[in-house]
# Entry
Amino acid sequence: MNISDRQNYISKIFKDVHKNIFDQIKMFEDKSKIQDDVWHKKELGNGNSVVIDDGNFFDKAGINFSSISVNHYPSLRWEIKANPWDCLFLQLVYQ
# Structure
């Protein structure tokens, strides 16, 4: 399995976990209290940010997934001489 295949495989696992958590939480929350933002940033990555505010079960909560791939640092405008890097984030925060 090459690096790209591994990244895609692990990313799918994280996305599935994110979806499962979100699906379970949606059973307790009013849909009008949920903001679901699927995003894609060119040359950076993609993700899904879910925010619940003043919910029935959670007062405030965030369920986030991000997949980031970087070949250079945009703010510095210089190329990374080593291999590009990938980051996956799966986050659940609540109050």
In short: Residues 3-94 form one domain.
